[in-house]
Amino acid sequence: xxxxxxxxxxxxxxxxxxxxxxxxxxxxxxxxxxxxxxxxxxxxxxxxxxxxxxxxxxxxxxxxxxxxxxxxxxxxxxxxxxxxxxxxxxxxxxxxxxxxxxxxxxxxxxxxxxxxxxxxxxxxxxxxxxxxxxxxxxxxxxxxxxxxxxxxxxxxxxxxxxxxxxxxxxxxxxxxxxxxxxxxxxxxxxxxxxxxxxxxxxxxxxxxxxxxxxxxxxxxxxxxxxxxxxxxxxxxxxxxxxxxxxxxxxxxxxxxxxxxxxxxxxxxxxxxxxxxxxxxxxxxxxxxxxxxxxxxxxxxxxxxxxxxxxxxxxxxxxxxxxxxxxxxxxxxxxxxxxxxxxxxxxxxxxxxxxxxxxxxxxxxxxxxxxxxxxxxxxxxxxxxxxxxxxxxxxxxxxxxxxxxxxxxxxxxxxxxxxxxxxxxxxxxxxxxxxxxxxxxxxxxxxxxxxxxxxxxxxxxxxxxxxxxxxxxxxxxxxxxxxxxxxxxxxxxxxxxxxxxxxxxxxxxxxxxxxxxxxxxxxxxxxxxxxxxxxxxxxxxxxxxxxxxxxxxxxxxxxxxxxxxxxxxxxxxxx
Length: 574
What we know:
Largest sheet: 8 strands, antiparallel
Oligomer: single chain
Shape: elongated
Number of helices: 14
Number of strands: 25
Helix content: 25-40%
C-alpha cells in the first residue's frame, strides 16, 4: 500500500522504499528520466534488502530533519535496521544510493537482491564485471557500480547474496547509477563511510529549527521533503512519481515529475511564513527565470532545468493497480492565469522577508504586464480543467497585485492596486452567487474549496461578507469528518467521486484561523493525520479506507502543512 512507502531524495532524484526493504521506484539520473527500478508500476528492476525470516514485523522512521530513512524489522530472533539515503552533495549525473544494514539485536540474516533494469524495465544488464569486490554493469544508457556485495552471485542480470551480521555489526552497500562510467574507489569501505559523513553533514545544514510551530516534528519533516524534491536549479518537482491513480480505473493518473510554477509558489510562501530560509530563495530564483524567459506565455510546469514538459505518452508498464503508466503531461499546452497571481504572491512574501533583490524586479514587472494582457482570457484554472473564466484565477491575480503593491514604490503601487480592484469588480459582476458567496465560474454556480485561498492571500478582507459566505459554504457543502473536498463532481456523496483533498483541508485550517475561529486547530490536526507511517502525504486521502491516493509524496501538501503549522502557532498577521 502507498501509505507504507518512504522517500529518500537528494534534490536531483528520489526513490521510494517499501516495507520489504525494496527500492520500488527510482528514475535516474534525473527526476523525469526513465526508471531503473519500476516495480511500483508493475515494471522490472528492483533493489531489496529483506530479512530472511519470513515472520517479521516492519517499521521505520526518519532521522530528525533529514530524508535519511531507517527501515526496521523485528523478527523472532533479531531486530534489524537498514539505514537508507541518497548521498549528498547531489550530482545531477550520478545517483549514489547508500544502504547501511545494522544488527541492532541478535544475529541479522538478510537476503539482498539487485536487479537493475533501465527504461522502465526494458533493458537487461550487460557488460557485467566484478573487480576488486565491486560489481559494474550497463543497463540502457546507464552505468552501475555496486560495492559491498562481493559475494553476490549473478544470473541473467540478477544479483543475489545473503548477509549475516552479529549483534552490533553493520555493513555498507553502495549503488551508483550514472550517465557516465563511474570512478572505482580504491577502498570501497572507506568511500562508503565518507559518503555517509558527507550526507549527514549535508542534511544538518538543510532544515531549520521548527520548534516555534504548532507541530515542530511534522513541520521540519515537511521542509525536509520539499528540500529533497528541490534541484540545484531551484526547481521543486510536484512529486517524484508518475501514474499513481487518484481513483481506480477512471483515467486520473498523471506524471508529476516536473516543476509546477504554482506549487513552487505555494512552497515559497509556506517557507516565508516561517522564515527567510534557502528554499524561499530557490523558489524566487526559478520562478523569476521562467517569467523573464516566457512572460505572458508562462507555462504551468517545466522540467527542473527549465525545458518544456514533454507531451503525454503511455508507458510499457502494467501500471499501479487501478491505473496505467504515463510519462509527460498535457499541462504543457495549458494557460493557467492564477499562476501569474501566485508568482506575485511569492515575490511579495520574499519582499516581506527581505529576500526580493533588485534583479528580481524585472520578473515582478513582467508578471504584472502578463496579468494586464491576459486577465480576460479563459484559462484551465487551478484544477487544470477546460478553459473558462474561473473566479479563483482572477481573484488570485487580484491578491497577488495587492500583495506586491505593498512592496512597490508609490507610482506603480497605486496602479497595481487599481488593477486588483478592477479584477475584483470583474469577478463580482459574473461570479457572485445569489447566496452571497463566490461561485466557480460565470456558468458554474458550484462552490469550490480553492475559493478560500484568495481571501487567505488578501484579495479581499476576511471580514468581507463574500469571504464569510464562501467559507461557510465550503464548510457546509464540501467538508465531512474534518476533511475537505475540492468541489462536488456529481450528485454522489462526498468521498464517492474522489478522495478528500489534503491541500483543501489545510486551506480550511488557514481560513478559519484567519477568522480567529478556534476550529482551525481541529482542521489542522485532522488533515495532518492523513498520511502513512513515514509521514508522507499524497494529493488525496480516501477517508473511508484510510488510504493515500495519487502520486507520493505531493509537495504542495507538505508546503501547506508547514505554512499551517507556522501560522497556527501565533495570531494571524497576514
